[in-house]
Specification:
Elements lengths: L2 H4 L12 E3 L8 E4 L4 E6 L2 E2 L7 E2 L11
Antiparallel strand pairs: 1-2, 2-3, 3-4, 3-5
Length: 67
């Protein structure tokens, strides 16, 4: 999915901005909402914007180092 289209997406919960993380800098391609501390997966180039599919971010898993 082109970056310009991803920039139009917002968090489905808080409507806040998302950060697009992708390899090789990060281990997986995700859209991260820092406000809700959730990472939404991108599968086959398609963002999965469902709360039930999101991965929670927490310091214990090392996800706090996403800066």
């Amino acid at each position: 999915m082109p970056t310009r289209l991803i920039e139009l997406l917002v968090c489905p919960l808080c409507k806040g901005p998302l950060e697009h993380l992708r390899p090789p800098l990060h281990e997986r391609q995700e859209l991260v909402c820092r406000a809700d501390r959730l990472a939404f997966p991108v599968r086959d180039g398609i963002p999965v914007m469902l709360e039930s599919e999101a991965r929670p971010l927490d310091a214990a898993s090392g996800a706090g180092d996403l800066a």
